[in-house]
Amino acid sequence: MGCARWLALGGLLALAGLLQARLLLPQQAGFGECDRFFYAGTPPAGLGTEAHVRICQRFAGSERFATLYSPGHRIPVFSAFCAARPAPRSAEQRGLLEPQIDDPDSNLEEVIDEADSAISVNNLGSKQALNADYLDSDYEIGQLYPFPLNDDLQMSTFPLTNSVPMTQSFRERWHMNLNSLMDGALIPHCNDGKDLYIITGAVPSDNRLKGKVAIPEFVWLAACCAVPGGGWAMGFIKHTKDSDVIEDVMVRDLEKLLPHNPQLFRDNCGETEQDTEKMKKILEVVNQVQDEERSLQSQKSMSPLASTQTKRSALLPPEAPQEGGGSFLGKVLGFLATPFIKLFQLIYYLVIAVLRNIVHLLWFIAKQVINGIEGCLYRLGSATVSYFMAIGQELVGIPWKGLKVVGKVIRALLRILCCVLKAVCRALSIPLWVLVDVATFPVYTVGAIPIVCKDIAAGLGGTLSLLFDTAFGTMGGLFQVVFSVFKRIGYKVTSDNSGEL
Fold it and tell me: How far apart are CA 213 and CA 494, in angstroms?
């Protein structure tokens, strides 16, 4: 093998290693490059489990949408799209398989035809549904969101990882609802669909197709318009019963109907800044779609009666032609009676249609009333359960709080005992002679009181004696000075007088 072949083989192996990251590993977060299909780049929280497979769907060299697939049910949990228009109902569907679900070591980059994957994928059909699972059954391959992967709308390719079992009538009505809602309500009120994020999913039931593929209980769609200052969010559900029409719900209510109560959009698609006027206009279109679906059901319910009458008329034997005047009289009578018969038939059909519509209206009103009562009972039950749960939590918390108080009291007592022990230890650490001096201090103090008092009295007596001595000495000195002065004065006078004599 030449050097060029080795280099080519090495490049293919390296490319295969890169392509394996398209099925996200458990330790990887989000959906990789397909995070752009979610509002704010954040996938729904609470819907995924360890058993689910996260797929970044690729076709023709680019990412198309993101899917969370359940190998246990062999149907998708949800798929996410951005700015995608649904394919027309006349588009031919060609199912594609995801090779890396059944064969994690597969080097195939994109979804492929089942015929091409039979020889290149190991364990084909062990974890995902195949076209053969739908053969010889009352169910067809129904796309949760019929988004064409190629540019040819009449020859669209749809991956089976975005498919669930649907009856023919249900699939046609579901795709009709999607086309009507997207073209008439959602895309026109969201910047021509450029800021529109779509998530579609299915809730599986206990019934399975050929014991493998789970038949959905209902399918749902959640739309988020991310236009700044004028966004909105809306949800839709459709039960798989043929008599049910598509229902509009708020996203929060839709989340309550899904398993595990997930959060479909981050911050509920900017709930605080949603445009209520646009939502009202969308609901008006939704009501029109619902009325169209009801009228279509009424027409389909009337068609079996007409077909039955046609079959009965075909089975009746032809009447033998009558001869002569009888034939002419029969023609005249038939000509005269035909308008009345047609009028009677018209009145009959009108009465049947009115009665049927009245029954549908009454059933719709009763259903709305029942749903309202059920919602009120549900909210009342939830509030009651929450109230009793809160009371129960408080009652259960009382012993714990009591134990906490007892613990704090014991802790305080232990601290006091610790302080006493520390004081005793410190007292025991003082030398003995200090304790003897402290103990004898009162004795010495009391014994020294008389001596101190004697010394104080002696001091006071000495002080008084000194004061008296000082006073008497001072007075004596003064008298002596005065006496000496007068003595000298008297001596001088005496001397002067003697001269005169």
Answer: 166
3-state SS assignment for residue 1: coil
Instruction: Give the Cα separation of 104 and 19 in Å (integer).
Output: 11
Lowest mean pLDDT among 73-77, 245-249, 375-379, 426-430: 426-430
Tokens 């490059």 belong to: 33
* Both structure tokens of 457: 């009295």
On whether the CB atoms of residues 96 and 113 are closer than 8 A, the answer is: yes
In this structure, the number of other CB atoms found within 10 A of the CB of residue 94 comes to 16
Question: For residue 78, with 0-12 CB atoms within 10 Å meaning exposed, 13-18 middle and 19 or more buried, which class applies?
Answer: buried
The predicted-structure confidence for 441-485, as pLDDT tens digits, reads as follows 777 777 778 888 888 888 888 888 888 888 888 888 888 888 888
**Cβ count near 68 (within 10 Å):** 23
pTM metric for this prediction: 0.56
- Contact yes or no for 103/119 (Cβ under 8 A): no
Least Cα distance to 84 among 132, 138, 36 occurs for 36
- Characterise 95 by phi-psi region: left (phi > 0), alpha (psi -120 to 50), beta (else): beta
Q: Which of 46, 342, 311, 330 lies closest to 201, judged by CA? A: 46
3-state secondary structure of 203: strand
CA angle 244-245-251, nearest 5°? 110
Tokens representing 192? Answer: 């021509």
Q: Which residue has the tokens 């021509």?
A: 192
User: Residue 259, SS3?
Assistant: coil
Question: Which DSSP string do the residues of 341-393 spell out, in sequence order?
Answer: HHHHHHHHHHHHHHHHHHHHHHHHHHHHHHHHHHHHHHHHHHHHHHHHHHHHH
140 pairs with which residues across the strands?
A: 166
For residue 440 the two structure tokens come to 């004898």
Residue 470 has which token pair? 């000082």
Burial class (CB in 10 A: 0-12, 13-18, 19+), 265: buried
- The single-letter code of the amino acid at 439 is A
Residue 201's DSSP bridge partners are 78, 220
The separation between CA 448 and the C-alpha centre of its own chain, rounded to angstroms, equals 89
In terms of Cα–Cα distance, which of 151, 153, 143, 174 is closest to 67?
Answer: 143
Contact present, 105 and 161 (Cβ < 8 Å): no
**Cα gap 490→501, rounded to integer Å:** 17
Distance CA 42, CA 263 (A): 10
Say whether pLDDT at 322 is over 60.
Answer: no
Secondary structure (3-state) at 481: helix
Beta bridge partners of 271: none
Q: What's CA 133's distance to the chain center, in Å? A: 35
Q: Which helix (H) or strand (E) holds 247?
A: strand 247-249
Identify whether the C-beta of residue 89 lies closer than 8 Å to the C-beta of residue 174. Answer: no
28-196-89 Cα angle (round to 5):
100
pLDDT at res. 305? 43
